[in-house]
User: Fold these one by one.
Assistant:
Number 1:
Amino acid sequence: MGIKRKRGFQKRWDEYFTAITFAEAGEFDFAVDTIESKKKILVICPKKEMSYKSIKYIANFCERMKADLLFVGNCDSQFEAIKEFFKDKKTNIEYLPISTFSEVDLLKLIEENRIKLIIVESLEILESIASLSKKEAFQLMEKILEKVHCPLVLLEEL
């Protein structure tokens, strides 16, 4: 088997196992979409610097899923470093500076960009961007996720 065929096989293998993981978690639509279509992941940026571990995790996730990234939030100062990290990767990245957002704003953003997954480094980020308490931030994400049927990855422990 040639090297290109092995890489192609490995990519399909990664896609299938990513799909299986989400199917096991009850995210059947996301699992099917993982195999069938181009994906875009929404990353809600912190006002402080995003950790290197988080950026590396997001990059690896994008490679496995063959997904593009949309960063939103207030990360102007770190976006150049993030772009530099992704320069040799096949992932397309965009940045949308938003200092605050509401439930309606976030829903519109998710639907317009056909977001398949949301990544947040911590709930504190949601609190600061959405100007909410911790409990309200959690409730906001619950409401949004119910409406768009989109999984959320919380990176707090990285």
Number 2:
Amino acid sequence: MVRPRHASTVVLVRPDADGDFAVLLTRRPAQMRFLGGYYVFPGGAVHQDDYSPQVLERCRGLSAKEAQRILGGRHTEKLALGHWTAVIRELFEEVGIVLCVTDSGEEIDLSAAATRNRIESKRRAMVREELAFGGFLESEALYCDLSRVIYFFHRVTPEFYPMRFDTRFYIASLPSFQTALESSEEVTHSIWMKPAEALERTYEHGFPILPPTTTVLDDLARVASWEELRARYRVS
């Protein structure tokens, strides 16, 4: 039996004009070893660098002790907090969304082309492993806003899979003045969909999707509105 690796996944949500909401799904490149070609939520394995002193010093909104308590005391405080920072790193690497704030607590504004291009250049450097996540945070004077990342679900890959993950699922809202990349090095394409619509498409050819993604979608499809979603999960 393969021992599962620690992982974090995030359901990114945004409100619709009709008072409903949509979630971001990304399609993994077909050549990827795990779930290649499938639609998933952004995420991946928790790396040791995700809870390095350099990264943890640039976290706000959640203490390591509280993170450990929320995850049931199964991890060290640092590793528990690393599940949250892994969400922020993976979301940035895969679709370019930055769940960070400035020293004064303000959201980062990516509406200006110069800022957006600079951040994108650093994202690509991170993917090429030329820049560490902690180095990116320091270079931009940013802090991970852990208060935006809400934990809500836990799943372990079944034993018969050759690659297994012990995955924590989180939910977070799309920040203002930011847009998810349509594609990247780890994403064939990304798409915003209402949960119920995504579930309907699981029966179509060319829309491969598996549990636990469908399990999460099924739960969210039962939420009637954006306001109900905010109230249930404390999404800001």
